[in-house]
Structures are given as structure tokens and as C-alpha cells.
Amino acid sequence: MDKPGPSKKRKVKDENRQFQEIWTEKYFFVWSHNKVVCLICKNSVAIAKEYNVKRHYETQHPTFTKFIGELRKQKMLSLKRELIGQQAMFTKPIQDSETATEVSYEISRMIAKRSRPFNDGDFVKECIEIAAKKMCQQKSLRKFN
Q1: What is the structure's pLDDT at 82?
Q2: Contacts (Cβ under 8 Å, ≥6 apart) of 129
């Protein structure tokens, strides 16, 4: 008799599960940052399977079944906008921080290039103009001229 070979365990990543766009309208779920995220409660589902998505929707949000037709689409779009806005709230400070770092490098380069201390009035104005152009692009042209 032959011995059975070692059993091969199934792995989730080998199943090639993919998010289906129809889940957005049916269950209020979207694909965001490599996760399937509920638009209503902002929780993610562990595995991108329709069964998991449907179970979450039916058990956690049964009141949303009352939305049908155009009202359902409007609700889905407003929840989508809310999620995007919430995610943008975290990326904007990072971008601002990176811009501030770039400005400080630019001003440091100017100080080193001119071999001047940071106390000459025209030089200070020039540095402020550079900072204003990078940090607040629309307002800087009117306020510092």
C-alpha cells in the first residue's frame, strides 16, 4: 500500500480572490488600500469573498436594505465621498510636512550659497517668498508683492 503524501493546506492568497464591483451597490463595500472596506462602518472584511461581504452587510447593517433604486445609489455615493474625505484627511498633513521639509532645505541651500547670516532684510524677504510659493501657492503671489 502507498502512503498518502503530505496534505497540502489551502492558502487564501493562492485562491486569487478579487473584489467585485457589483458588491459596491449590493452590499456597500469598496476596494480601498488592498482591503475590502464597508462604506457604512469603515471596517474591512478579512477575505474578499461574496459570502463574507454579504454576511457582514446582513448582520451588521440590516437597516440599509430599505434603500432601493436611486436613493440607494445616492446613499452609496455619499458614503464613498465620506470615506475618500476621511482618507484624505490623513494624507494632507503628510504632504504638508514634506513640503515644509523641502522649503527648509531650499532656504538652507540659499543661506549656504550666499554665505550670509539670516538677518539681512531683503534676503529674509526672498526666503519668505520662496516658502510662501511652495507652502500656499495661490495666496502667496498677492500677499508678498
Answers
A1: 84
A2: 140, 144
Gap between the Cα atoms of 121 and 128, Å rounded: 11
As to burial, measured by CB atoms within 10 angstroms (0-12 exposed, 13-18 middle, 19+ buried), residue 54 is: middle
Find out whether 58 and 52 touch, Cβ atoms under 8 Å.
no
Q: Which H or E run includes 130?
A: helix 121-135
Instruction: Tell me what the mean pLDDT of segment 27-51 comes to.
Output: 84
Contact 99, 135 (CB under 8 A): yes
Contact by Cβ (8 Å): 118, 127: yes
- The residues that bridge with 36 in the sheet, in sequence order, are 31, 45
Q: Residue 104 to residues 21, 36, 57, 113: CA-CA distances in angstroms?
A: 44, 39, 49, 14
pTM: 0.50
